Each structure stands twice: as C-alpha cells, then as structure tokens.
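Quick one, tokens below. Sequence please?
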C-alpha cells in the first residue's frame, strides 16, 4: 500500500469517527421538546377542567365528545389554549386562556373586544367558530346570521398582554344573489377615523 492510499484510509476513518461522535439535532433537542409538549398538555388539561366545571359551559353528555381543546404557541413563552365552551346547531363557542412567560395556567378567559358603532365597545368571554391562523398569527371567529351562510366575524391578535381587535366585518344578508351567491364582506373595523380599543371593559351579561 503506497503512502497516498494510507493517508486516504486514515482520513476516512477519522471522518467516520467524528460523524459517529457528533450528536444529532434531534438528540440535542429532545429534552426541551419534551418539556414544551408536557407544558402544552398540562395547560390543555387545566383549561378543560375549568371549562367543564363552569355552569355556562355545560354540554349534554352525548355532545361532550364534540368539546375540543387546542394549545397554540404565541411566542416568547406565551401559550394560548382554545377550548370549546358550548355548541349549537351551527356554531361552537370557545374560550381562550393564555399562560404568559412560561408560567402557570391563567384561570380567567381573555375577553374578545368588538366595536359596535354608535353603541361603542363590547366584550365577550367566548367567541363562535374560533380558530387560530398560523399564517397571519391571528384568532378568527365568525357567527352565521342565516342558514344561507351569511355571517359576520372578526380577527384578533395577541399583543403580549391581551387580544386586540385587528379586523371586524359583516355580510349584507339582503344582498344575497338569486343563485344564493353570498355578498363580499364589508369591513366595520378598523374605522376611519381610527377608533382605539379601550384598556378594559367588563364582559356583557
């Protein structure tokens, strides 16, 4: 065996040894991932327990299986939990609980602010057909106004302390086409001139 072949074999052996000793990204990150998963599951279980114990969120036993719970990573150690409170023929009403800065569960649902024009601002402790849009990082909810599918809705974003109304819209149910085609949504918020969401108001009864 000549010198060049010996050097080549030695280099390959050294490279193989280095590769075997280098931990993979999966191995290095398994412990933190496990901790995050465990926290998400604990927050979901806590929120589910709170909602089931709330008399405003009681579901008939046959419908209990429709109650869903989802944990969402809001970033910065903040986690939101969406849990179904009540369900009807067309709509499911959900609450949102947020655990901030890697902390424990929060036992008060976040209010959803909506702008009611001349009536000002109102809040609800649950919102219908609520979902999390990872692309826009917003919560979106809608309520059907008619069986035709005519609806109104809104979107909220998490600002690190509360849910802030980002968009609110409605459909003109009187403008449904003869073929049943729904009209385009009309934006109600943001307003012109701008209307600022208040720091806090009590939820409506």
């Amino acid at each position: 065996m000549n010198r060049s072949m010996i050097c080549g074999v030695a280099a390959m052996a050294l490279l193989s040894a280095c590769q075997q000793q280098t931990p993979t990204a999966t191995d290095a990150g398994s412990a933190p991932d496990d901790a995050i998963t465990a926290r998400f599951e604990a927050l979901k279980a806590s929120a589910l327990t709170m909602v089931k114990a709330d008399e405003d969120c009681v579901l008939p036993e046959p419908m209990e299986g429709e109650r869903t719970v989802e944990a969402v990573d809001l970033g910065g150690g903040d986690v939101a939990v969406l849990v179904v409170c009540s369900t009807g023929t067309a709509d499911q009403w959900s609450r949102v609980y947020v655990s901030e800065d890697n902390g424990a569960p929060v036992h008060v649902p976040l209010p959803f602010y909506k702008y009611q024009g001349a009536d000002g601002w109102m809040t609800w402790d649950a919102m219908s057909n609520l979902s999390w849009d990872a692309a826009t990082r917003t919560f979106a909810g809608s309520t059907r106004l008619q069986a035709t599918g005519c609806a109104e809705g809104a979107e909220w974003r998490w600002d690190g302390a509360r849910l802030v109304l980002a968009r609110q819209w409605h459909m003109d149910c009187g403008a449904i086409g003869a073929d049943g085609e729904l009209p385009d949504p009309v934006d109600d918020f943001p307003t012109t001139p701008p209307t600022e969401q208040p720091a806090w108001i009590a939820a409506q009864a």
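The two ends are 89 Å apart (CA to CA). Helices lie at 3-21, 25-53.
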